[in-house]
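@channel sequence for tomorrow's demo:
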Amino acid sequence: MKIFNCRFVAIVLSVAIIALLPATGLAAAEAPKGPKLIELMTTTCPACAEMAKVLEQFTKKHGDKIAVQVVDVQKYPDVAGLYRVRYVPTLVFLDESGKVLDKRVGYMPLDALEKYWAELGYDLKGK
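C-alpha cells (generated this afternoon):
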C-alpha cells in the first residue's frame, strides 16, 4: 500500500491546473478573484446547450461575484482528466483559492444553481 503525501499531491495538482489554464482560456492573471464555476461540456451534448443558457443568465446576474468558465472537454481532454469528468455537463464549484468545493453532473436550473451557491456559503443576493 502506497501512502502519498497529501501536500505534495495538492501542489502537483495545482501546478497541473496552472499549466492547463492558459490553453483553456482560464489564464490565472486574467481570472477574477473570488469563487469560480466551471462547466465541462461538449458541443454535441443537448443538456450542455441548455446549461449554457442557464450559465449566461447566471453570469448576467452574478458575474460580478462568481466567475463562470466553459471548457469543451473534446478540445481540452486534460482538463476533463484533471477534474475526473466522466459525463457532461459537469459543473465544478471552486472557492477563491481554486479549491474544488464540489462537482455536480447534469443540467441544473438557474434557481437550483443559485440555491446551491448559497448552500456553499456564498450570498448572491447581498452586495
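heads up for whoever presents: The first strand starts at residue 36 and ends at 41.
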